[in-house]
């Protein structure tokens, strides 16, 4: 097995194995104010604490770049602006525990609003800006969102008539109609002074919706205590120093964009680069060159696109500021690690975790040798294992369920409104991830695949049920089944099998129309790239779609057990 040497230079943690042996999470609590006061607010720890420190208040907290638009905020400015947002929300009646959603593109005011929500003790629900009507409605409805902050452009996707709990909508970038609120106006009228609502570390902070193999997306509910692990992994794994210029490429509509686009960097007092606009290799490299990014957290799909753009593009930018590069979300191909080593002179450090786990659990720590293709080892304070379906721990080199011993700080509180679903994640005190993996003799974990039907396309999880439900709303579609199909660049693409209603004939135009129907109804990343018309959908006798069978057929694999197949 080829091993790559650890990252050169000095790190926050020099002896990872020793830390793993001695570490307890309670040690880390001492670093926060609640150790003495008993009360917490993650917004205070991430922003106000630095703003109140004369040595840090004028340091840049945020550098925002979208095309030629550039904005820079110090920690003091971020504190003031988020206090204004907190006062704005308070004036509209937001109180502890209310769900306040953010549906807007990445911009500095997203972050001000986000912290404004937390400062009121309310729960933030960030929505990915590419979500369309149905996706937006499902999330706002399930969470019982009371207030929404959005933009004039995205507002038409919010069907207010279906959302009785939604009391107030605040709109950026325009003078809205009478029953809506003008963001700028409210913000300008709001004071820059606000005393955060002091909370218990178990109090709710964040709702992120994620896809499962059955049902609509589920609301993964996180508590303020998660910040201990955001801070710890920011320090140990991202290796952040206060002088770092850090860039996480994920949108805050996804968990990576909050845990590591907000908390990891700011709890550690680093300068956080925020990129608006669309991905192009040139724009991304320019971001690193211009702002002298030192630590970069990105995803395999993006790295594969950058590799496909060619070495010359990379070489035409000065990327010498980079000292540490990390990846998350999908299997990181060894070829990409070798490519990055050659072209960037940097090795990519893979990390594994999930929306539900709230923060990194298995990582390539900077001081550990990298085994290309492995996700790394558990962080200090975390025990991971491969277990069988009965909850027994399996020996090294055997495939099974990747599981983590319950009890790490950033573990979700529950699934919103569905405690039963939450409970179903556990067996014998182990959290069962839904991934299959192996562990080797050195304790490194190797990802094998997902054990459910959830599709991972370009690092975004898509639940087949959600796409199937939308497909059958199209007048031409009677039944639908959706699978993931391996793809070089995107990891997987979505393929839909549909049966047509009488009176509709297969045509390229019809398939394109159906694809656009999903794109407009759910989101671009959920739209099937391939649609095949079939005469029937394989189902079990109890009526469950047998996606496994369709997938095996599509990939030319053995069909496996078909005893439950309906006649
Ligand atoms: C699923 C979780 C939390 C980060 C963003 C994704 C897959 C995640 C890796 C990795 C192979 C990975 C797993 C996991 N995944 N990281 N390093 N190697 N697969 O969060 O949307 O909740 O997805 O992403 O299948 O279960 P998510």
TrEMBL record:
Pfam families: AMP-binding (PF00501), AMP-binding_C (PF13193). Residues 466-544 form the AMP-binding enzyme C-terminal domain. Residues 56-416 form the AMP-dependent synthetase/ligase domain. Keywords: Acetylation, ATP-binding, Ligase, Nucleotide-binding. Gene3D superfamilies: 3.30.300.30, N-terminal domain of ligase-like. It comes from the Bacteria. It is an enzyme of class 6 (ligase). One of its GO terms (biological process) is acetyl-CoA biosynthetic process. The keyword Nucleotide-binding applies. PROSITE patterns: AMP_BINDING. Its EC number is 6.2.1.1. One of its GO terms (cellular component) is cytosol. GO terms for molecular function: acetate-CoA ligase activity; ATP binding. This is acetate--CoA ligase.
